[in-house]
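Anyone opening a protein record will find just a pair of labelled lines. A complete record is shown below as an example:
=====
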Amino acid sequence: MALKSTIYKAELQLSDMDRHYYAAHSLTLARHPSETDERMMVRLLAFALYADENLVFAKGLSDVEEPDLWLKDYTGAIKLWLEVGQPDERRMLKACGRAERVVVCSYASNSAIWWQGIGNRLERAKNLTVWNVPVATAQALEKMARRTMQLQCTIQDGQLWLTDDDQTVQVDLVRLK
């Protein structure tokens, strides 16, 4: 018998002063059985960073042909392809060929080693951006995971703060590409 995804609900109040985007999003996150709370919260962080009324959670772990999140225009063209973790080089190049813009949010302790191994082979991918979420930040985000979450996110001058009833996590992303 296959394990089913666990459903998480998040009410996200977002104030992105850098992009002048202010919105409330009611999100449903299906946490795949093989996914950790840490990874799920980094997916939520990725949503907050690139929030748009048309940005949606895709099948990600369940379907190799889809990212974790994507933004499509009304014609079905992929405007933004968002990956969480450490995808392989071929997956990223394929995504760069399919989407206008590709973003990877890496969060593991070995992200620098992963990037050193493939970074120079991805220099030609001009539409690729790679961020690293520091390990301590990802672990702090993991502690915020609840089946029902009320979150406030503020983005200003390239810094992000994610707050719930108990804590505030400052997210200082490290740009790898």
